[in-house]
Amino acid sequence: MKILDEVILPGETKTLNLEIARLHNATRLKIPVIVSRAKEDGPTILLSAGLHGDELNGVDIVRQIVHSEINIPERGTIICIPVVNIFGFINKTREFPDGRDLNRMFPGSKTGSLAGQFAYHMVAHILPHVDYVIDFHAGGQSRFNAPQLRIAANQNELQELAEIFHPPFLLYSAQISGSFRNACAKKGIKMLLFEGGKSLDINSEVSTMGVEGTKRFLAHFGMLRNKFTTSEVEEEMITITNSVWVRAKKSGLLHDQVAIGTYVTKGSVLAEVSDPYGKENTAIKAPNSGYVINVNDAPIVYQGDAVFHLSKTLK
């Protein structure tokens, strides 16, 4: 196997460095690509995170997998990229320095914007070797996502793999043009997109679910070494086929939110928005019954801000 002009032999683990551009002060920036290859052939699985530079929970999940040596496979190959958007990671921002969202730039351009060039190199140099991807994300702008997987509808193999990973929720989500998931789908690469936690935050429960789910995923392909055990999840994975964003009708202080993952009934109070002078409280009510899969943790909201993501149709 040859990646980024480096040969990885059977039974070998190598850290490769993808270097595309420097900081404006000429400091070199390298993206570590950790490739672990077993002596026995098998599938190649990419575990990636940090596509958005401020989504640290995914970075922590892949970090734990590497630190615990879960990424050294019994068979096949595991590629780990804990931080894809190294520029955003350094700046603690979602976007690239050019202001672009990397997850809308795929398949990219060799001579385009900085984000477009990064997308191009991912597609040109990493994806040709890959059969499956788990891409780890978190909610943005103080919005905490319940641990969930996202796949397109009517994908039987992905549905089976999601059941094996087994987070609390599975959300059917259409492919988005320019996304990493869409680029993988066009190349016939199966991706599970994991969402959990919020930006600029690391939640240990979310990290544990991500690591344990990945272990079950690897065990399914015979890639998890015998020294590791997998935990069975007794709770049913809730499949969500449709969902709705619930928005604030007034600006003010946000408080008394319901807990993430809660099942609520139509008309129940999800939170209250109050003015800072103690004159009024405005209730945010559930427009339908469903599970709360995203909660806005910001202390202040403006009229029209998304406060909750609520499942609408259950399967």
Characteristic terms for this protein:
alpha+beta, 315 residues, five-stranded mixed beta barrel, four-stranded antiparallel sheet
Summarize the structure in words:
With 315 residues, the protein is α+β, with helices and mostly antiparallel strands. It is globular. The longest helix has 17 residues, at 204-220. The chain starts with a strand and ends with a strand. The chain is built from 6 helices and 18 strands.
Strand-helix topology:
Blueprint: E1 2-3, E2 6-7, E3 13-18, E4 31-37, E5 44-49, H1 56-67, E6 77-81, H2 86-91, H3 114-126, E7 132-139, E8 143-151, H4 156-165, E9 169-172, H5 180-186, E10 190-198, H6 204-220, E11 238-247, E12 252-255, E13 263-264, E14 269-274, E15 281-285, E16 290-296, E17 300-301, E18 306-314
Parallel strand pairs: 5-6, 5-7, 7-10, 8-9, 9-11
Antiparallel strand pairs: 1-2, 3-4, 4-6, 8-10, 8-16, 11-18, 12-14, 12-17, 13-16, 14-15, 16-18
Helix pairs in contact: 1-6, 4-6
